[in-house]
């Protein structure tokens, strides 16, 4: 499986979470022309800024392309963050069995 396929859903989720307008309870943040309807174009207009920032952050060598190497760099960074978070929470979690599953 190509890494680009594997990371499409997490990238989309990251874009949606990082978009301040989606945190608003008021849907009018997307209704650019105020007609009471939200079109696909209006949604994409709001997401463009976040999408560009996320794309640029993932394009580590700034060549305008997100390559498998760029995805590897992002994956490595996410794994490091996950290990840091696990270490941070370890004192507060129940003991784990040797299989790595939490005891119930």
From TrEMBL:
Organism name: Mariprofundus ferrinatatus
InterPro entries referenced in this protein's UniProt entry, alphabetically: EF-hand-dom_pair (IPR011992), EF_Hand_1_Ca_BS (IPR018247), EF_hand_dom (IPR002048)
Residues annotated as domain EF-hand: 46-81
Keyword Signal: yes
Domain of life of the organism encoding this protein: Bacteria
Signal peptide: 1-23
SUPFAM superfamilies for this protein: EF-hand
Keywords: Signal
Protein name, entry field: EF hand
GO molecular function, one term: calcium ion binding
Pfam family, one: EF-hand_5
UniProt entry tagged with the keyword Transmembrane: no
